[in-house]
Specification:
It is a single chain. The chain contains 10 helices and 5 strands; from the N terminus they run ααββααβαββααααα. It is an alpha+beta fold. The chain folds into 2 domains: 38-193, Transcription factor LuxR-like, autoinducer-binding domain (Beta-Lactamase, 2-Layer Sandwich), CATH 3.30.450; 211-298, Arc Repressor Mutant, subunit A (Orthogonal Bundle), CATH 1.10.10. It has a 5-stranded antiparallel sheet, sandwiched between helices. The protein starts with a helix and ends with a helix. The model is unreliable at 1-10 and 202-214 (pLDDT under 50).
């Protein structure tokens, strides 16, 4: 009977032993992160601490406030992917990122899969094909945390495409460490707002966006496109299907298709790939204008 009892205990002991091991590893990690709180090695130490619990390949972190250019907080990936993930991203494509829109809509602090916010055809979008294929990202999990002055921080842990997706047990581990990790990164990046551009207007509360949600796309296509067409362009580029756009804007799918054809005709294009390329070019031109304005203002 004793042998049977021991056999029945074995799975419990194994689970308890693993939990104790993970707790020990995270306690060690927290100690090391706190010791590096003011150090240039902070990003790497955080990456190493999380890696002891769940296999990840690198981390990136951004601060978002309204629709202004995000602030790069951290990155542990090396070239050639660093430029695409950081410089290219903040020059305009961030406007199509599901995590950006989640921050803009007031998502609460927590741990989320990118897929939980992605539109229904996100993986078929040109943004996904271009950004994620160029960077070889396969899986992204984001830790959301609130910073002073209406800033939302997102620390992402990522895996390369050649690796398997993060499993449910692994995701549960990440969720378990979210509260303590959030407290630490808030201390590290509490001054983020001081290093960011100020939006033309800051909503009274996080998530109060309304039609301003589409403001960033008004410069794309200029006066050629109507407000409704700008709205539809933004949703197409984010990865929404015709049916999803119809639901978002309370239109019929047929009306959405008519608007799409009109947009393509006005812009002289014939595919979503060309639409995305035109959008990127518009963002580059806008960035040049902003840089020129900053230089003139500083002078």
């Amino acid at each position: 009977m004793r042998e049977v009892a021991d056999a029945l205990k074995a799975p419990y002991l194994q689970t308890r032993s693993r939990s104790a091991f993970l707790l020990e590893q995270w306690s060690r990690g927290v100690s090391e992160i706190l010791a590096a709180l003011e150090s240039p090695q902070f990003d790497r130490v955080v990456f190493q601490a999380i890696s002891r619990l769940v296999q990840i390949d690198f981390t990136v972190a951004f601060a978002y406030r309204g629709r202004v250019r995000p602030l790069i907080l951290a990155c542990t990936v090396e070239e050639p992917y660093r430029r695409v993930m950081l410089d290219d991203y903040v020059s305009g494509p961030y406007l199509l990122d599901p995590f950006f829109h989640a921050a803009l809509s007031g998502t609460k602090s927590g741990c989320y899969r990118l897929s939980s916010f992605a539109p229904d055809q996100f993986r078929q979008s040109e943004y996904y094909r271009t950004h994620y294929h160029r960077t070889q990202i396969g899986e992204e999990i984001g830790f959301f945390f609130e910073l002073p002055d209406h800033v939302t921080g997102v620390l992402s842990v990522l895996r390369w495409r050649q690796h398997s997706p993060i499993s449910r047990p692994e995701f549960s581990i990440l969720q378990a460490i979210e509260t303590s990790l959030r407290a630490i990164v808030i201390k590290r990046w509490s001054d983020a707002s001081k290093r960011m551009d100020r939006p033309q207007r800051i909503e009274g509360e996080r998530g109060a966006v309304g039609n301003e949600f589409f403001d960033d796309f008004k410069s794309f296509g200029g006066s050629q496109l109507s407000l409704r067409e700008h709205q539809i362009v933004s949703l197409i580029l984010q990865g929404h299907s015709t049916e999803s756009i119809a639901r978002q804007l309370d239109l019929s799918p047929g009306t959405v298709k008519v608007h799409r054809r009109n947009v393509y005709r006005k812009l002289g294009i014939s595919s979503q790939a060309e639409l995305f390329a035109a959008f990127l070019e518009s963002m580059r031109e806008r960035e040049v204008e902003r840089t020129s304005h900053r230089v003139q203002t500083a002078g």
